[in-house]
Design a protein that fits this description.
By secondary structure, the chain is α/β, with parallel strands linked by helices. It contains 19 helices and 18 strands. Strand 17, helix 17 and strand 18 form a beta-alpha-beta unit.
């Protein structure tokens, strides 16, 4: 049994480069390859044969292009056997050269299919012929180290039948025949290479691509010239060898997005979740609208800095941001789309215009119809073109339902727990579970007049705060209103009994409850005492009587039912 310092499985670019270098460094090296020719996918059935054929296609294409410049060569005649032989010659030269190089460097090439049979042993089932035909003979190689450079194989699509007409890129590159028509599944680089070669041979090629653009994953700014060229070829199809590429494809309408609006608890978020989970797009993003906008502002800032530093020349930071976002996800889903911030309002139009130009599809849920977005906002007239754009690019659907599904989960349940002990905490936890359901939960932020209010725990439509978070901090009516707007249901943990020296907290609690009451917020609390005993003495204790009475009312079924009506009128 021969012993090697290094055995490498696979002789593609990964394997052969490694083998030659290892031998140069003085290691006794074996290179195991199941096929007769070295070079792996790249040299045999990938980069090299495809480029050999593409070169021919490019020359034919250029010749056709010259007709428009007044120089005509006539229609090309393709001898498929000669073309195949040319491609095989190019491949043969390179793989042959590789074989000689391996010999010169004293790399031992073992022809066969390798599999490990121990930590230091590789069994090779020897193969012969052009394919991987096993001879029945085996050879065991002992090695100190091994490298696996076995490459990858084409995916088999489960819905594609076993049919000799169906080939992968390896099959296509053998040029078995030139059919009249061909369908290429996948508009990525390899799919388009095959399409280009066959279109040059006069085949009518159609390409299907799942995502909105060709070559998903590639920089859209680089793909755009290609798409433009293809469109031009389509117009000039009679004179061009690429003429039939995409020629018969019907005009693809951009996918329209969807904007669902309706009252709280109508199931918008659930529909969005179902849609997002089921959408087959690979590049998709589901984001809370505020998080998304925070991300946008940050990216714009970074691009601005780069432009300032001269790293990027003559570019619009908004377009660069849109390009980067579109590259990461072509399907954007926003739960709770609402605009309150002037900085957001002023950039939305430009941002979304750029996103739509890049075929990004937007799906959003909101409590407000598009026309009610940024309703009382400063300089609203500058925001209006964005509303028009939304209505043009998205189907707008009002989710009308008499039923507030969220209220079903609260009806008949206790909403005020006293004392604020472990039992109360567990009850509040149970309410949270019921209302947040399977939605992702975590920290969030609410913005109010340029300030950020931290939300310790949030899920769509519901947030949970401690008493201290809300009343132990310098917050005011505007902040409470922003919170109530963002979260129709609030859970507040542990309202203490307030002594006269805690008059500031008492005052904030009065403002908080007034705001929540006016908004019709569903409120679930734990407290050290019943409402009327929470602030019995101190500055403003008389005002607190109204707060106590409102707290009593807010835990009633009647409040819950009519609060829904209040929120609907938003
Ligand atoms: C049509 C096409 C066009 C392409 N064009 C380009 C291009 O223009 N530019 C570019 O950069 N890339 C291109 N690629 C990709 C490129 O070919 C691959 O990235 C590259 O070949 C990967 O090299 P590798 O060494 O990892 O694997 P491979 O080249 O796949 O080599 C792996 C080798 O391992 C052998 N092997 C596997 N298992 C065993 C085993 N158990 N025993 C023995 N042998 C085994 C295989 O037979 C194969 O020869 C193209 C690919 C295709 C299909």
């Amino acid at each position: 049994m021969e012993r090697f310092d290094l055995v490498i499985i696979g002789s593609g670019p990964g394997g052969y480069v490694c083998a030659i270098r290892a031998a140069q460094l003085g290691l006794k090296t074996a290179l195991v390859e199941q096929f007769s020719a070295l070079g792996g996918t790249c040299l045999n059935v990938g980069c090299i044969p495809s480029k050999a054929l593409l070169h021919v296609a490019a020359v034919m294409d250029e010749a056709a292009h010259f007709a428009g410049l007044g120089v005509e060569y006539g229609a090309p005649k393709v001898d498929i056997d000669k073309l195949r032989a040319h491609k095989n010659k190019v491949v043969g030269k390179l793989t042959g050269g590789l074989g000689s190089m391996a010999k010169m460097r004293k790399v031992t090439v073992v022809r066969g299919y390798g599999s490990f049979v121990g930590p230091n042993h590789l069994e090779v089932e020897l193969t012969s012929g052009d394919a991987q035909d096993k001879t029945g003979q085996k050879q065991v190689i002992r090695f100190a180290s091994a490298i696996i450079a076995a490459g990858s194989a084409a995916v088999r699509l489960p819905f594609v039948p076993d049919d000799p007409r169906v080939v992968d890129s390896t099959g296509a590159l053998t040029l078995p025949a030139v059919p009249k028509k061909m369908l290429v599944i996948g508009g990525g680089i390899i799919g388009l290479e095959m399409a280009t070669v066959y279109a040059a041979l006069g085949v009518r090629v159609s390409v299907v691509e799942l995502t909105p653009g060709l070559m998903p994953g590639c920089d859209r700014d680089l793909v755009r010239p290609l798409e433009k060229r293809i469109a031009e070829h389509r117009l000039a199809r009679k004179s061009s060898s690429l003429g039939w590429l995409f020629a018969r494809a019907p005009k693809v309408e951009p996918i329209k997005g969807l904007y669902i609006f309706g009252d709280v608890g109508r199931g918008k978020s659930m529909l969005m979740d179902l849609f997002f989970e089921g959408a087959p797009a690979l590049r998709k993003r589901r984001a809370h609208f505020h998080e998304f906008m925070a991300d946008v502002h940050e990216r714009v800032f970074v691009f601005r800095q780069k432009i300032k530093a001269g790293d990027i020349v003559d570019e619009d930071p908004m377009k660069l941001t849109a390009a980067a976002l579109a590259e990461e996800a072509w399907l954007l889903c926003f739960d709770e789309f609402h605009v309150t911030d002037i900085a957001d309002a002023m950039i939305l139009g430009r941002l979304f215009k750029s996103l739509f130009e890049r075929d990004v599809v937007v799906v959003a849920t909101s409590n407000a119809a598009p026309d009610r977005l940024y309703w009382d906002g400063l300089n609203r007239q500058l925001f209006e073109p964005f509303i028009a754009l939304l209505k043009e690019k998205l189907d707008v659907v009002g989710l009308v339902s008499a039923k507030d599904y969220r209220l079903d989960k609260l009806a008949g349940r206790q909403l005020y727990f006293s004392p604020a002990d472990e039992t109360a905490r567990a009850e509040l936890d149970a309410h949270w579970q019921r209302l947040a359901g399977h939605h992702p939960t975590g920290r969030a932020e609410v913005e109010c007049n340029g300030r950020i209010i931290a939300v310790p725990k949030a899920a769509p439509g519901i947030a949970r705060f401690s008493f201290f978070d809300l009343c132990g901090q310098p917050l005011g009516a505007a902040d409470y209103l922003a919170i109530a707007r963002a979260y129709p249901t609030l859970i507040i943990d542990h309202i203490p009994v307030l002594t006269p020296d805690r008059r500031n907290e008492a005052r904030r609690l009065i403002t908080l409850i007034d705001t929540l009451y006016d908004r019709g917020t569903c409120l679930i609390v734990s407290a050290d005492a019943e409402p009327d005993a929470l602030y019995p003495k101190g500055d403003g204790a008389d005002l607190f009587e109204r707060t106590a009475s409102r707290l009593m009312e807010m835990r009633s079924e009647a409040y819950l039912t009519c609060s829904t009506g209040q929120r609907q009128s938003d």
